[in-house]
Amino acid sequence: MGMSISANRGPAALAAGLALVGLAASTPTASAYTPQSREVRQAVDRAVGFLEQNVTTDPRPGAVALIGIVLLKEGKHPSHPGIVRAANYLSQKALAHDDSTKLGLDIYSTSLMIVFFSLFDPNRYSVEVETLLAYLESKQKGHGGWGYDDSIRKTGDTSMTQNAILSFWEATRAGFRVSPTMIDRGMIWLLKTQDPSGGFGYQGNLSNDFTLVQQTMIKPSMATAGLGSLYICAELLNVGKAPKKREEDGRPQALREKKREAAPAKSQVNPDLVHRALERGKGWVQANYTITQRDYNLYYLYTLERYFSFREMAEARAEQQPRWYDDGVRYLLENQADDGSWTDQCGKVSATAFGVLFLIRSTRKSIEQQQTLGDGTLVGGRGLPKFTAGLTIRGGQVISKLELGSLDQVLDSLGETESLDYDAALSALEELPSEKLEPLVAKHARKLQELAGDPSPKARLAAVRALGRQRNLDNVPVLIYALTDPDPVIVREARDALRRLSRKLDGFGLPDDPTETQRTAAIRKWQAWYRAIRPDAVFED
């Protein structure tokens, strides 16, 4: 620490000058598989089919999140039963305690839940993501790593730290602010626990400074986990990124491609330390390459794909037919069970999810989405507001001008269904971050409750969504009333909000497309539940 930042190197140049020839540049084999190859797609489809049938087989939140991540990466519709069930289950886990430091979740599950929510609907689940990020911050150890509770082990765990750092990358892509200090401390822990050979051990043996010390239990999955995490930290913290001349092409900077000028570095670590660590690691991977290891092999493939994907990004080059991918495909094709699954010590469900994420080049897909400005993609990762008539740029984000004005004016606009700004006001309300939405809903709860009965379906949906994002039991009667709405989208929104507020995963069993009998039964049960905690509550038939 205390070292100065060099301004002439960046993540894209961290690997510059490395003399070793990486595996990604190896001569392709005759197979030359790609994620689109027929054999690969067949294996993926079989594995996804297995996961769709086993959403609740493994109750660990991390396993459920992995299934949701796979389904999202495979382009399944947000209404897919597996995604919906995962979202409801994980939301309940994330909001299980008013004090985020007491959630009691393991680091793996917490991290994967953040990834899932960030991929699925970061606006709708912003409270969950922010709660989980706060929980990870509370669990970061004094040395900067993450691991088991100190009562079990005080060391940092390379595998757990990898997952925490991955979640920071996904959350940042989705537009959330992740503490740079937390990321920086994680990167320092990685630099202080690298073995002199370039690999990483399971439990980090911490150096007093940046002088490398011997590590134990070094294996490929830990090496790729540590190195991939270093690449992510360097990217998130702009370590050594050289400033670029701003290109004036007539568009707002936030709407340009990702090749934007660098933000100031957020780390005080000398970029040379990171450069040398990645150089050593690249040498270790070259010298110790294997597609199998003794245990947790599907988890290893998951970390291997991530490492090479971030390395490709840092080196600004991507091999189309890398040897390691061909080797991994052959291994997975040869070891896939009849039911479409794979297994290792992580468990059948998790191992199968890891296998799919390897085959589809999941990390590279995310990186490509970040680097290419697609429809409605922002520099921060969140989607463009649905109505773009009045947009402005703030902090690198495209936001509605309504958000910058008085929140009272937004509510006033919501009450004027013939207003030209009506759609924009609804969009602004739906997309407000939780810290602005909470006081808005609290101040204008009565008006929002009335809006839940508005003739306009758009107004009703916006009101129900806003009331549902505020954790206030006073809103329950209106949400129960919304279960009678003729619009099935509004019914599902109200149902999911009630589940979050009550922390009841199944929410009395109301399906996505209920019969009138099912709807009436669910409404009666929700009313009974509310009367149990609010005996004076009165409902009109």
Q: What is the helix fraction of residues, given as a range?
A: 40-55%
Q: Assign the CATH class of the domain at 433-533.
A: Mainly Alpha
Helix segment tally: 22
Strands in their spatial order, largest beta sheet: 1-2
What does this protein look like?
The protein is 52% helix and 1% strand. The chain is mainly α and 541 residues long. Among the domains are: 54-139, no CATH class; 433-533, Leucine-rich Repeat Variant, CATH 1.25.10.10. Helix 19 (457-469) packs parallel to helix 21 and helix 20 packs antiparallel against helix 21. It starts with 37 loop residues before the first helix and ends in an 8-residue tail after the last helix. Mean pLDDT is 79; it is low at 1-29, 242-262, 372-407 and 417-422.
Properties at a glance:
541 residues; mainly alpha; Leucine-rich Repeat Variant; two-stranded antiparallel sheet; 1% strand
Short description:
By secondary structure, this protein is an all-alpha fold.
Question: Helix and strand layout, with pairings?
Answer:
Elements: H1 38-52, H2 61-73, H3 81-94, H4 107-120, H5 126-139, H6 158-173, H7 180-192, H8 220-236, H9 271-287, H10 297-315, H11 323-335, H12 348-359, H13 362-371, E1 391-394, E2 397-400, H14 401-404, H15 407-414, H16 422-431, H17 434-443, H18 445-451, H19 457-469, H20 476-482, H21 488-502, H22 516-533
Antiparallel strand pairs: 1-2
Helix pairs in contact: 1-12, 2-3, 2-4, 2-12, 3-4, 4-5, 4-6, 6-8, 7-8, 8-9, 8-10, 10-12, 10-13, 15-16, 16-19, 18-19, 19-21, 20-21, 20-22
